[in-house]
């Protein structure tokens, strides 16, 4: 790809990210070269490199691929005055890890040139009810003691921490058991290497490499489903390692039995050890994660000013996955530091309007009305209808309050969905519940219970 082609591609990116984001994030990056599947860019600061990787990495990769380029990953190097600042790379690569230098944000290894993310450690993994079992199992494996369950199979939806836990295991093993040879790679990378070995007639080397590891970790194993010869090779590798009593750790986006087009014999092997599920996050875990990110950020930028209630608001409103939550916070920090202002609710809603709109789809006004009606044992038609007796009016106000809190609908919109009421009625209802929440323990409890039920 030439610089001119990159220029044309930037237009597509402009259309995708919008003028403001483009000016702030995309414009400063400069295409350097594309070699061996890696598109390299120069950036003025490490911060921009990190931000673009996290927020636009996939998008850039997508546009590059769409334009016909063969690109596996992108990488950023800081060109300003600090030649020592490390380049940043995307996470989906492989690495054989055998040193404990964590100085760079993403560490490359000489052997494969692939990264383990230094942020993905156990001490930065926030534990809550939804992930406590997965965390405990990962920590056990990371001790590097005798193999008790093989494989450890971690599964869960997008962005819930599977990769984080796998990297954490690798880091931990490196520091406590540097004698062990740990190989972490994505299933895609496994296939890529297998195909390359076939093409270069280096299957013996391939087999030897994979059979000589002490701990093999394969991320996103669902990727090999339907790819027959890769599955076959994976099956042999798996068996050879289990026979030698070597630990295997696998992750996927769903349980082994539910991965379509995965051979039955592989499914049953994968179920032989310990299968642990990372559940969707709950409000408390999301708040804990946000808090820990703020603490980490504050350690670097003590001038950060964050109004009360912002984290709670984000934890309520963004329940899709942790990656989205993290991305939202990073964007907020970046925006606030650019404009040099305190992070207020207004700034948050402004800066994250697209994310908030996207995640709002999760809880609808109708769902809230239904749940609240059920909870107070009234009919939905009475909740929306004209009757003003307390038995209906209070649940109606509770529902309005939750609509205001859990969706991004405006007051007039909410009013319309409550039988065409005026926005001042909604405003009054929301205010009333806010007051009651502080005075009436029962209302506070009802609100909490309903919120949990709606977010579950
Ligand atoms: N419990 C947690 N504590 C702190 N950070 C977390 C937690 N769970 C997820 N994250 C963060 O969320 C982001 C996404 O996590 P990760 O990449 O591990 O997800 P994943 O389950 O592997 O997703 P995918 O299915 O897309 O590969 C990472 O930046 C990770 O650090």
From TrEMBL:
Q: Where does the Chromosomal replication initiator DnaA C-terminal domain start and stop, copy by copy?
A: 364-433
SUPFAM superfamilies from the UniProt entry: P-loop containing nucleoside triphosphate hydrolases (SSF52540), TrpR-like (SSF48295)
Q: Where is this region: Disordered?
A: 89-110
Keyword set for this entry?
ATP-binding, Cytoplasm, DNA replication, DNA-binding, Lipid-binding, Nucleotide-binding
Q: Would the keyword GTP-binding be found if you checked this record's keyword annotation?
A: no
> What cellular-component terms does GO give this entry?
cytoplasm; plasma membrane
Task: Specify the domain of life of the species encoding this protein.
Answer: Bacteria
Q: Please give the InterPro entries that the UniProt record associates with this protein.
A: AAA+_ATPase, Chromosome_initiator_DnaA, Chromosome_initiator_DnaA-like, Chromosome_initiator_DnaA_CS, DnaA_C, DnaA_dom, DnaA_N_dom, DnaA_N_sf
Sorted alphabetically, which Gene3D superfamilies does this protein's record hold?
A: 1.10.1750.10, 1.10.8.60, 3.30.300.180, P-loop containing nucleotide triphosphate hydrolases (3.40.50.300)
Q: Where in the cell is it found?
A: Cytoplasm
| Pfam families hit by this protein | Bac_DnaA, Bac_DnaA_C, DnaA_N
Q: Which residues bind ATP?
A: 159, 161-163
Region Domain I, interacts with DnaA modulators: which residues? 1-83
User: Where is the sequence biased in composition, kind Polar residues?
Assistant: 94-107
Positions of the UniProt region annotated as Domain IV, binds dsDNA: 337-456
Which GO MF term does the entry hold, naming one?
A: lipid binding
Q: Which residues form the AAA+ ATPase domain?
A: 148-278
Q: Known CDD domains for this protein?
A: AAA (cd00009), Bac_DnaA_C (cd06571)
- PROSITE patterns given in the database record: DNAA (PS01008)
**Family as reported in the entry's similarity comment:** Belongs to the DnaA family.
Role according to the record: Plays an essential role in the initiation and regulation of chromosomal replication. ATP-DnaA binds to the origin of replication (oriC) to initiate formation of the DNA replication initiation complex once per cell cycle. Binds the DnaA box (a 9 base pair repeat at the origin) and separates the double-stranded (ds)DNA. Forms a right-handed helical filament on oriC DNA; dsDNA binds to the exterior of the filament while single-stranded (ss)DNA is stabiized in the filament's interior.
The subunit structure is:
Oligomerizes as a right-handed, spiral filament on DNA at oriC.
About its domains, the entry says:
Domain I is involved in oligomerization and binding regulators, domain II is flexibile and of varying length in different bacteria, domain III forms the AAA+ region, while domain IV binds dsDNA.
What protein is this chain from?
A: Chromosomal replication initiator protein DnaA
Organism annotation: Shimia abyssi
- Primary gene name: dnaA
């Amino acid at each position: 790809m030439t610089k001119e082609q990159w220029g044309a591609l930037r237009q597509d990116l402009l259309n995708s990210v919008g003028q403001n984001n483009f000016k702030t994030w995309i414009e400063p990056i400069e295409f350097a070269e594309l070699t061996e599947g890696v598109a390299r860019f120069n950036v003025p600061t490490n911060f921009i490199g990190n931000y673009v990787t996290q927020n636009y990495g996939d998008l850039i990769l997508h546009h590059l691929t769409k334009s016909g380029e063969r690109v596996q990953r992108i990488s950023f190097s800081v060109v300003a005055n600090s030649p020592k600042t490390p380049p940043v790379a995307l996470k989906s690569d492989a690495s054989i890890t055998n040193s404990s230098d964590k100085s760079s944000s993403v560490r490359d290894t000489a052997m494969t040139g692939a990264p383990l993310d230094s942020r993905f450690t156990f001490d930065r993994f926030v534990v809550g009810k939804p992930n406590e079992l997965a965390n405990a199992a990962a920590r056990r494996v990371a001790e590097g003691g005798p193999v008790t369950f093989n494989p450890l199979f971690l599964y869960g939806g997008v962005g819930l921490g599977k990769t984080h836990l796998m990297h954490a295991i690798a880091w931990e093993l490196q520091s406590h058991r540097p004698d062990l040879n740990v190989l972490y790679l994505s299933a895609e990378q496994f296939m890529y290497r297998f195909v390359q070995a076939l093409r270069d007639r280096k299957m013996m080397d391939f087999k030897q490499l994979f059979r000589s590891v002490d701990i093999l970790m394969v991320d996103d194993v669902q990727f090999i489903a339907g790819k027959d010869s890769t599955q076959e090779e994976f099956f042999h590798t798996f068996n050879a390692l289990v026979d030698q009593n070597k630990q295997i750790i696998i992750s996927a986006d769903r349980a082994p039995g539910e991965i379509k087009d995965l051979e039955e014999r592989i499914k049953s092997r994968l179920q032989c050890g310990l299968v642990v599920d990372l559940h969707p996050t709950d409000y408390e875990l999301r708040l804990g994660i946000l808090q820990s990110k703020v603490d980490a950020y504050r350690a670097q930028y003590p001038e950060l000013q964050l109004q009360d209630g912002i984290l709670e608001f984000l934890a309520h409103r963004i329940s899709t996955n942790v990656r989205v939550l993290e991305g939202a916070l990073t964007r907020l920090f970046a925006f606030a530091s650019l404009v040099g202002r305190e992070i207020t609710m207004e700034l948050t809603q402004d800066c994250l309007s697209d994310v908030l709109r996207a995640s709002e789809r999760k809880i609808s006004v109708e769902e809230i009305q239904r749940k609240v009606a059920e909870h107070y044992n009234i009919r939905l038609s009475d909740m929306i209808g004209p009757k003003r007796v307390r038995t209906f009016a209070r649940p109606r106000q509770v529902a309005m309050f939750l609509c205001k809190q859990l969706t991004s609908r405006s007051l007039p919109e909410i009013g319309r969905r409550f039988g065409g009421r005026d926005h001042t009625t909604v405003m009054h209802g929301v205010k009333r519940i806010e007051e009651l929440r502080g005075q009436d323990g029962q209302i506070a409890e009802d609100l909490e219970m309903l919120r949990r039920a709606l977010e579950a």
